[in-house]
Design goal:
The protein is of the alpha+beta class and about 190 residues long. It has two domains: about 40 residues, no CATH class; about 140 residues, tt1808, chain A (Alpha-Beta Complex), CATH 3.90.1570. About 25% of the residues lie in helices and about 30% in strands. The protein has a six-stranded mixed sheet, sandwiched between helices. The N and C termini lie far apart (about 55 Å).
Length: about 190
């Protein structure tokens, strides 16, 4: 914990953060100035993230793309993030601790990270040229906010129960409902 306290006393660069983080027992993201401790998740968060990674892995064999997360980090606009899942296409250095050039990034929304996911990460991922699509998955209902790059701007759309996450950048179309298997979220439909 002393390492956390001493790190909080002065701003860091990305390089200083990466060196510092290697000696920490917990995981930290980097907001561009300070380390930010990662908090634990819920069963729903882990289930959705796990289902997402399995479904993507099942659809990517034979391509040059691979799904990573949540223990692998990326750099986005001078910040270090641990997305719940992300897809990288192309060669990777097996010993790298930061994955380069993510193409599609996924975050599972939680109450404690909602502002960061919707505002900070949206801006950071928008400033990262390799990221063509950013998907924020809801935890309490079958729904996602999908941001795709169009001529340098984010275009937003909502995908709900019965819909599909279309990701032409990686050649994948994924029914959103499969991501919620094993939990009982509110699908937005009500019985009469």
């Amino acid at each position: 914990m002393d390492g956390v306290m001493s790190a909080a006393l002065k701003p860091m660069t990305v390089e200083e953060f990466l060196v510092w983080e290697e000696s920490q027992e917990e995981r930290f993201e980097f907001d561009g100035v300070w380390p930010v401790a990662m908090t634990g998740g819920t069963i729903a968060h882990e289930t959705i993230g796990g289902n997402l990674r399995v479904e993507l892995r099942n659809r990517l064999p034979g391509t040059r793309c691979a799904v990573l997360g949540p223990t692998m980090k990326i750099e986005a606009a001078g910040h270090i993030r641990y997305p719940d899942a992300f897809v990288v296409c192309g060669p990777m250095d097996r010993k790298a601790t930061v994955a380069g050039n993510p193409v599609v990034v996924f975050e599972v929304l939680s109450d404690s990270t909602a502002r960061i996911d919707h505002i900070d990460k949206l801006r950071e991922y928008g400033l990262t040229a390799s990221i063509a699509r950013y998907v924020i998955l809801e935890q309490d209902t079958i729904a996602a906010m999908v941001f795709s790059r169009d001529r340098g701007r984010w275009i937003a759309e909502t995908v709900t129960a019965g819909g599909f996450l279309e990701m032409p950048e990686i050649g994948v179309e994924l029914p959103i409902d499969v991501l919620y298997r094993g939990i009982e979220p509110d699908d937005g439909r009500r019985e009469p």
